[in-house]
Every structure is written in structure tokens, then in C-alpha cells.
Amino acid sequence: MTNKAIKKTLTIPKWLNDAAEQKHVNFSHVLQNALKDYLGIHQQP
After folding, report:
1. How many angstroms separate the Cα of 6 from the Cα of each of 18, 28, 42?
2. For residues 41 and 6, what is the distance between their CA atoms, to the nearest angstrom?
3. Which member of 6, 10, 27, 39 has the greatest number of CB atoms within 10 A?
4. Cβ-contact 25, 32 below 8 angstroms
5. Which pLDDT belongs to residue 29?
6. What is the Cα–Cα distance from 9 to 3, expressed in whole angstroms?
7. Cβ neighbours of 1 (radius 10 Å)
8. Model confidence over 14-43: pLDDT tens digits?
9. What's the Cα-to-Cα distance from 35 to each of 5, 22, 26, rounded to whole Å?
């Protein structure tokens, strides 16, 4: 596996985007953490 970053496009509801931006959410960080949790990955391969 490589740690090379890739660009992904996703669609979320506007209200969710607005709420996240208001809290200055780092979308990339949150998505990476959520995917690792969902996949049961607890450390970087």
C-alpha cells in the first residue's frame, strides 16, 4: 500500500455541509478517520 493522496469527489446534503463548515471541519481528516473506523483499521498500513 502507498500513502499517496488521491482526490475523491462526494456529495452531501447542503445542510450538513453548512453545519460542518460553520464548525471549520476538515472534511478530509474526518472522512479518513470515519473510513478507518468503518473498515476496522486502527493503524496506518
Report:
1. 24, 11, 20
2. 18
3. 27
4. no
5. 96
6. 18
7. 5
8. 999 999 999 999 999 999 999 999 999 987
9. 15, 23, 14
